Amino acid sequence: MNILNKFTLKSLSKNKKRTIVTIIGVALSTALICAVAGMLMSLKKTLIDTEKQNNGSFHIRFENVPKEELKYIENNQNIKGYFYSQEIGFSYLENSQNENKPYLYVLGLDDEALANSGLKLIEGKMPQNENELVISNHIITNGRVEFKVGDTITLDIGNRVHNSGYVLSKYNTFDYGSSSNEPNIENSEKIIDTASKTYTIVGIIDRPSYNTMEPFSSPGYTVITHLTREQIMQGKNANISVYLKDPSDRTEMEKLINTITDTIMEDTKAEVKVIKNSELLRFEGNLSDNSLTAIYNIVGIVIAIIVVSSVFVIKNSFNISVSEKTKQYGMMSSVGATSKQIRKSVLFEALFIGLIGIPLGILCGIIAVVVLVWLVNLLTSDIILNDSVLFLYGLPLEAILITVATSSITIFFSAIIPAIRASRITPIEAIRESKDIKIKAKKIKTSKLTKKIFGIGGVIAAKNLKRSRKKYRTTVISLVVSITIFIALSSFLQDGLKMTGYYYNDYGYNISVLANIDKETQLANKEKLEIYNEIISNFNLTDYSYNYERNGQIDLEKYGSQENKDIHRSTTDNDASDNLDTIEIVKLDKNYFSRYLKELGVKEEKNTAILTDEFMYSTENNPQRVIRLFNIKDGDNINIITEEGEKNITITKVTNKPPMGFYSSSSVGYIFISEESDLISTDICYLDRLLINAEKPNELEANLLDMVKTDVKYAGLSINNIEANAEAEKRIILIMSIFLYGFIGVITLIGVTNIFNTITTNMILRSKEFAMLKSIGMTKKEFNKMIFLESIMYGAKSLLIGIPLGVGLSYLIYRSYAQNIEFGFRLPMMPILLSMLFVFIIVGLTMKYSLGKINKQNIVETIRNDNI
Amino acid sequence: MEILRVQNLVKTYGKGENKVKAVDDVSFSVEKGELVAIVGASGSGKSTILHLLGGVDRPTSGKVYIDGKDIYSLSNDNLAIFRRRQIGIIYQFYNLIPILNVQENITLPCDLDGQNVDKERLSNLLKTLGLENRAMHLPNELSGGQQQRVSIGRAMINNPAIILADEPTGNLDSKASDEIVSLLKLSNKKYNQTVIIITHDLEIARQADRVITIEDGKIIGDERN
């Protein structure tokens, strides 16, 4: 081995600790890059996989291709794989409740198509022959036609034609000029050439993808049977779905599509319909509005931050290593080493560090990705309900190659400047050791105050900081970066947690159920109430409420508060309606109303009426404050204009405690009365949601969802689990915290490696100076105090810069979402205190470590030893 | 045969009022095989002259020819290569590489040059230097005299045109000093090696073939013993 490389390795092994710390720094930065790239790849893989599951695992489908033309597609060299499907035809769906979807659309798929069309089986199995069928659950929930697995149905399947004779496809909506459910009457279209076929229903699938299989406007519910390739070849025109070799090449893909459609058009005059699986193509990089671009950009910025800060830190390690060897490089040069040889030897050092650090970092990065993906899946598994795709591992070779390249560049840039510096060391400088003592007295002047307060130890400490300003600048900056990021991100996360708390805390209920029924109010109310009552009795609910609502009008001049009038004047034009303000009349169910009154301490009478009219009001100049909308007191008699004429209502009590489901932040006043009150009739009101405060909301939700699935009657129920939503948001914030704190943690650790190297090396380089100080009579105590002061001084310096920067940054983040939240900016005290603690611990520990080393040294030997 | 020629060598430091002429228009030449002592008081410029002769510093003006080659016409890298082949420098403070052992320190110029070390020459040299049992020791395991012998070995390994020694005994006791001087004389006699010693020790100077006296950067005496 070359003597210079040998020398480099020997120095590395002599400074084992520093070498290890530098390698750790490199490994951490590599691991961070690898983890970011790995998470990006995992995200991409997850998205692509989700798309494949939802929309099918193919890129393009050519529909309605004459069979003799299929070969042009099958033999195309840009196509990796293909599978077939075939339209069998339309049939009437008897008793379909959706007047836009009166048909069943029967489709035959081959084996591969069944597996790759994004079909999700809910119940039963997939069809295995041409007599078996799966139906979509949409037929049950939307069409309200009851089918069970095991049923047999006989369908008259044929072509759908317009009265003009034009053949219609599934892409033509149903002409619902007549609202009759009976087939064939007055419709502008009909099904002809029917053939009868009996199927057994063997399974139920989720509604097929609207992107690639059943468009929203499709006139038929898709049902799917199995066809072999041979059966398809015997039938009419086929659909062929293809998987491209390179889906990211957009122009190539368009060319392929045009060639194929043109060829077929020329040959047979058949018009081929082309369906692109655009969501999948998008995530595979095909379309210009690539949703991943934004993420790629963010990841690019993050990696740039990592690289820049790593170069900064690792460069410092090489700088230390080089300046420690300044004299030796000078000696080398004086016995004839060329600058190129010396530069190469520093780069060899970098190579060595990289050869250990990068593989180590990649290993750690891969472990980090595995752990993070596992953690994300663990944390999300029970909150994302059905149909969830697990976050997948995706760390292909290219991510590792990118990491290796990025890290190598990082190390190269870190080492090249110190290498050039080393190669420029002239022998004479080394002999005189002049480079390191280029200081001027003025530059290191300290104030007399320092001497008075801290004594000569303090003066030397301060002078030393000023002398090695450049060396310490890197340390201070890396501390500042860590402090700033830590404070800003922690206060952001705390606000995030606080916000979700705000939104979900005082609802008073945790599950809401709304029955959607498209009927006149009166009838709908009756049906809804029936469903609500069934739910209440089925699950033995006690803590629940439902209510009927209706708008009324109130005289603004007479009853409105000054603020309310101001708001009105500023928001509406000057016309007659100006004098009226909306007030909501709410009839609460009688059980809940009694409980509510008890809470308020009001005696219940038949026409008891409660008013809430507090409003969280803010203008540009005025921050939020609570105002009242009306000048109404307990016992006031007020007039409300309703649909049923003007009503006179006596307000029993005015309160700022609304019943469950209502918030004081809405700008409308509410009058709460019992459902049995005769102030207005229930018939003109709208029955809103059933609000439930369940003991076990998740269990109840699951039971309710079961009900929806199993009984057509409940199909239109929409269920909202507030607790689960809040929990989901908290989990997402937790995941974000793990990612962000992990990121801060690693960036900080990289900084710590830098701090450790700077401080310990500086201490060792100054050991001669220290020995001299001790030899002229500095006691151990004084010496320790001097070192302690030195660490305090630059710890304080980094805090002095880092804290204001961090607070400023968190204020900027606060400002960006401040409009949506109801709390003011507060100093992130906790993060500030933590960062102070952290800085002094890090600096203190490092100092203590090197002090221990120095105190062990013998004074005389250190002074005499010139070869350090 | 002339091995070294110095022509009008000038080296100044600083600017304006602070300008100091460390070497002021010095010219002389040295024959092959001569043992020359350069003496002078501290600060007289003798070390600067030696550094200029050794090609580790650059003169303000003037020329240095070693074996007929104008060394300052060379680029830095070529000068470095020239140094490792043609010049051996011995310093007062030895300036060994602390993490390389004795043998490695001695063979450093060969290794830098990518040459194979002549094993026989190395073992002869170690024997001559009295270091045959110390070849694998690190510098800090040796006494001052031994360390200086290592640096003499390093200077001699490539059989250079000229050996320059800057106060080689300045840091040593009298016994070690004598050893070092005898070694230098031995190499001078045995290998007909040209040696230039800088010293303020007149006892050493008396053993040289020729004594050049420097004061304020100028030659004020050039005598042959």
The secondary-structure class of chain B comes to alpha/beta
Q: Which secondary-structure class do the elements of chain A indicate?
A: alpha+beta
Which fold name fills CATH's third level, the topology of chain B?
Rossmann fold
* Binned strand content of chain A: 15-25%
Molecular structure report:
- The complex is a heterodimer of chains A (868) and B (225).
- Chain A has 868 residues and is an alpha+beta fold.
- Chain A folds into 4 domains: 1-54 and 290-438, no CATH class; 57-276, no CATH class; 449-506 and 724-868, no CATH class; 511-693, no CATH class.
- Chain A contains 25 helices and 23 strands.
- The longest helix of chain A has 44 residues, at 722-765.
- Chain B has 7 helices and 10 strands.
- Classes of the chains: A alpha+beta (868), B alpha/beta (225).
- The A-B interface holds A 2-4, 6-7, 10-11, 14, 327-328, 331-341, 426-428, 431, 865-868 and B 51, 54, 56-57, 76-77, 80-85, 87, 89, 91, 93, 95-100, 104, 107-109, 111-114, 139-140, 154.
Write the layout of secondary structure elements.
The complex is a heterodimer of chains A (868) and B (225).
Chain A: H1 3-14, H2 16-55, E1 60-65, H3 70-74, E2 79-92, E3 103-109, H4 111-116, E4 121-124, E5 132-136, H5 138-141, E6 152-162, E7 167-168, E8 189-205, E9 220-226, H6 229-234, E10 238-244, H7 250-268, E11 273-276, H8 278-283, H9 291-324, H10 326-334, H11 339-380, H12 397-423, H13 427-432, H14 448-467, H15 469-505, E12 511-515, H16 521-538, E13 544-555, H17 556-559, H18 562-571, E14 580-588, H19 590-600, E15 610-612, E16 614-617, E17 625-628, E18 637-642, E19 645-650, E20 653-654, E21 669-674, E22 686-692, H20 697-710, E23 717-721, H21 722-765, H22 767-775, H23 780-817, H24 829-856, H25 859-864
Helix pairs in contact in A: 1-2, 1-11, 2-9, 2-11, 2-12, 2-21, 9-12, 9-21, 11-12, 11-21, 14-23, 15-21, 15-23, 15-24, 21-24, 23-24
Chain B: E1 2-13, E2 20-31, E3 35-40, H1 46-53, E4 61-66, E5 69-70, H2 76-86, E6 87-90, H3 102-113, H4 119-129, H5 144-156, E7 162-166, H6 174-190, E8 195-199, H7 202-206, E9 210-215, E10 218-224
Parallel strand pairs in B: 3-8, 3-9, 6-7, 7-8
Antiparallel strand pairs in B: 1-2, 1-4, 4-5, 9-10
Helix pairs in contact in B: 3-5, 5-6
